[in-house]
Amino acid sequence: MYQYDEIDQSVVDQRVAQFRGQVQRRLSGELSEDEFKPLRLMNGLYLQLHAYMLRVAIPYGTLSSAQLHKLADIARRYDRGYGHFTTRQNLQYNWPKLEDTPDILAELASVEMHAIQTSGNCIRNVTTEQFAGVAADEIDDPRVYAEIVRQWSTFHPEFSFLPRKFKIALTGAPTDRAAVRVHDIGLVLRYDDTGNVGFEVIVGGGQGRTPMIGKTIRAFLPKPYLLSYLEAIMRVYNQYGRRDNMYKARIKILVHEVGAEAFARDVEAEWEHIRATATDLPAAEEARIRAFFAAPPYRQVAGTDPGFAAKRLKDRAFALWVRTNVHAHRQPGYAIANISLKPEGLPPGDATADQMDVIAGLAERYSFGEIRVTHEQNLVLPHVAQADLYAVWQALREHGLGAANIGLISDIIACPGLDYCALANARSIPVAQQLSRRFSDLDRQHDLGELRLKIAGCITACGHHHVGHIGILGVDRKGEEYYQITLGGAADEQAAVGEIVGPAIARDELTDAVENIVTTYVDLRDTGERFIDTYRRLGRDPFKERLYDAR
Amino acid sequence: MQQVFTANRLTDGRVVYLTAAGDWSEDIAEGFLCANEDELSDYQRRAELAAVADEIVEPYAIDVQHGPDGARPVRYREVIRAFGPSIDYAVAVSAGAS
C-alpha cells in the first residue's frame, strides 16, 4: 500500500489544523453557515436528516488493518458503533458532532487517512476494482495509476472549483469491476499492438437524473501521458461545463451536447496546446509509486491446497461460501476472499465497530494486513492462502460476516435513503431488508444465479439503480413512498442503463413485484442464461406484461 | 393544521424543535404549535434570530397533526427526523455517542 512521506503527512496534519480553526470560527459565529458550508463539504462533512454525516476517503478502496481498526475506534468513540461502506469505496459515519470532527480528522490523520475532497465540486475519491494486483486477468495494477491520479487531483488549484463533482474510476482488466463506464472519466488499462501498456479513455458516463454510458474519446493513450491528458480533459470541462444549472453541470452533459467526437477534438487540441509544459510523471516517479504496490511475500506453494479441497467436500456450508465468495488468485495456493456485508435482513454495506475489528484482525493474520472495499459495498481480503480459508470463513460466520451471497440477488446495493439522507424521497434500507428476507433461501438464490439488485432512495442514484439488472428507485408520490423498477442495467464492460418497466409501485407491493419479475425470468430463461442474458434476449415486454397484467 | 419550527442544532446536527419559551428541544412534543398566522410570523422571527445567533441551522416550519401519542409530523420525512431512522439497527455505544 502507498505510505505517506513527510510531505503527505504534513499536508494532512495542516488540513486538520486548518479545519479545526474553521470549526472554531463557525461555532463562535465568526463564520456564517453560508461561508462554512463549502469549507466543510471539502472535508466531506454533510448535514443530513438527523445529524452531520462524515464521508471518509478510502483511496481506491484499499485499507490497512491499522486503518480499519481506527475506523472501528472512531465509530465507537464518536459515532454509534457502526459505519456504512459506499458505492465509491468510502466509509460514512452518520452521527458525528461538528465539534468533534476536528478530533476525528486528527485520528484519521494518525493512520494516514482523511476526508478531503469526498464532497464538493472537485475531483472526488479515485476508485478502482477490488481485485487490483491479485486478479489473474489483469493487464497492469490499476492501484499504481489510481495513486498517481489521487496525488495529482488532491488540492489541484485549477480544479478545486469545477462546475460540479467529478469522479474518476480505473480498471486494470478487460473485465470491468469498477463501473468505469458510468463515471465522469473511466480509464481502462489496455495493450496496444506492440504490447505497450496504456489507457482507453472514456468520458461522460454517469447516473443521477440523466444516466449516460461514457464515450471512448481515445482508444489508446500511452501511459506516460496520463496526467497531461487528464489535465486537457479537465481544462475543457472547466471552460465549457455549464455553471448556470447544477442539474446540467456534469461533464456528461457537455459531452452529450457537443457530441463525443467534437469533445474528443477539443481535448486533443487542448492537449497539444499544453503537453509541452504540462507535468507528466517521470518514469522514475512512476517506479517509486509502483514499488508501494509490490506483491507481498507469498509462500511458494504449488497447486491447490489439499486441506482446502477436502474441507469443501466435507462442509457444504463452506463449499457454498467458496462458490460465491472466493475468487481465483494470480498466485498459486492463494485466493481472494470476499466478505459480504449483506447479511439477511440487515442494512447493506453497514459494519459494526466490532465487525470492523474482526475483519482488521483477520487481515493482519491472513491477508498481509490488507483489506479492500468494493463499489458494491462489500469487503475483500485480497491475499488469503487457500490453507487458511476455512479458518477465515469460520471466524467470519461467527461474527455475522459469513453470508455466502456475492453476486446473488441478496447481494443488494442500497444507499442510506430516507432513513438518513436529506436528498432522499423514499427509504431504501427497509426495502433491501424485506427483499433479502424474501430471497433468503440460498438454494433458490443459486438457482437464480447472478442477479444485481440495486436500490436508490432518490434520483441522485448513489445506490446505482440505473445499472442494476433489477433497479429500484424510490419516488415520492403525494407524500407516499413509491418505487419505480428498471430492468436490464449493467455496470460492467457491457454497461447499460436500465429501462423503466412501468408505473411506480407502492411500497407494500414491491417485494411481490420483484418476485414476479424473477419468476418471469425463471419461466422464460434458456439453459445457462443469467437474468441479464434473458432480458437482453427478450427485452422488456414479457416482464412488463407479466408484472402489470397481474396487478 | 398546525405548524412547528424545526432545525438542526449547530454543534451536533441533531434535529430540534422551537419551544414556546424560544428554546430548541430534541422532543417534538415540546415544540410550540403555531395555530395562526400571527404565531407563525412570531416564531419564524425567533427561528431566524436563532439561526443568526448560530444556535441552529436552516430552520423551517413543518405541518403537524395531533395523534394518540401527541404531535406527529404530516410528512413521513419529518416523522423520520423526529423519531429517528425506521431501522432497528443502530446501537448507541460509548460515552461519545448521544
Could you give the topology of this structure?
The complex is a heterodimer of chains A (551) and B (98).
Chain A (H helix, E strand, L loop, with lengths): L5 H23 L4 H9 L3 E3 L4 E5 L5 E3 H14 L3 E4 L5 E3 L7 H9 L17 E2 L13 H12 L14 E4 L13 E7 L5 E7 L11 E8 L3 H15 L10 H8 L1 H15 L8 H9 L14 H9 L1 H10 E3 L5 E6 L10 E3 H14 L3 E4 L5 E7 L3 H10 L14 E2 L14 H10 L3 H7 L4 E4 L13 E8 L2 E8 L11 E2 L4 E2 H18 L6 H8 L2 H9 L2
Parallel strand pairs in A: 6-7, 7-8, 16-17, 17-18
Antiparallel strand pairs in A: 1-2, 2-5, 3-14, 4-5, 4-13, 8-9, 9-10, 11-12, 12-15, 14-15, 18-19, 19-20, 19-21
Helix pairs in contact in A: 1-2, 1-4, 3-12, 6-8, 7-8, 10-11, 14-16, 16-18
Chain B lengths: L1 E8 L5 E4 L5 E2 L11 H16 L3 E12 L2 E4 L2 H8 L15
Antiparallel strand pairs in B: 1-2, 1-4, 2-3, 4-5
Describe, in plain words, how this protein is organized in 3D.
The complex is a heterodimer of chains A (551) and B (98). Chain A is α+β, with helices and mostly antiparallel strands and 551 residues long. Helix content of chain A is 38%, strand content 17%. Chain A is built from 18 helices and 21 strands. In chain A, strands 16, 17, 18, 19, 20 and 21 form a 6-stranded mixed beta sheet that branches. Chain A has a 5-stranded antiparallel beta sheet with strand order 1-2-5-4-13. In chain A, α1 runs antiparallel to α2, α7 packs across α8 and α14 crosses α16. Helices cover 24% and strands 31% of the residues of chain B. With 98 residues, chain B is of the alpha+beta class. Chains A and B meet through α1, α3 and α14 of A and α2 of B.
